[in-house]
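Dig into what follows:

_____
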Amino acid sequence: MNKKIILIIVASLVWWAWFIINLKASHMEYAKNERSPSFQIISKHEQYIDFKNQVKAIHRQRIVEQSRLEEIELAKISAIESKKRKKAEEMKRQGAERLKKEQLKLEEEQSKWMTFNASYYGPDCYGCSGVSAAGIDLRKSIYYNGYRVIAADTNIIPLWTIVEVQTPNETFQAIVLDTGGAIKGYKLDVLVSSEAESYRIGRHDVKLKIVGKYER
């Protein structure tokens, strides 16, 4: 074996011996430092920092979750309000359609005369209170703002409707302010001053035409 190879082997052995000695020294130094108070303080400080960071992370997560819950709750409230608005709009639309249909029906009825069977009644009739179904006191006059007062079936002619009536004896405009248990279908009850007068006039057919709606 030549000298060059021997030198290389010796140098390698010396380097490995130096490396092992330094590694052992470093290990001993670390163990020594680990037992030292300053090392323990640094370690506890690092543990405190880690714990503090964990608390911050948990707090941030809670804030995110709370925000998400608030968004969900706001979405629910918004959906409820939207349903309420849609329902109100639908009710408004249905009300407008119903009024339109009533107006069309009224306009149609205004253009034609209809035959009704008319009877008469006084404010002193048996079982009568003297106050109409529309809440008008009938004991003072048979007129309301210049119109004669009549009772009708509100399924045929609604309350507060102005009509023109042709009887065998007279023609007048009247307003529907009352109803009656026997007044069903195409029947009228015309208000007169007393029950005695109603018996005197009796019952007969009349012609009726709708004029319009009384504006209150």
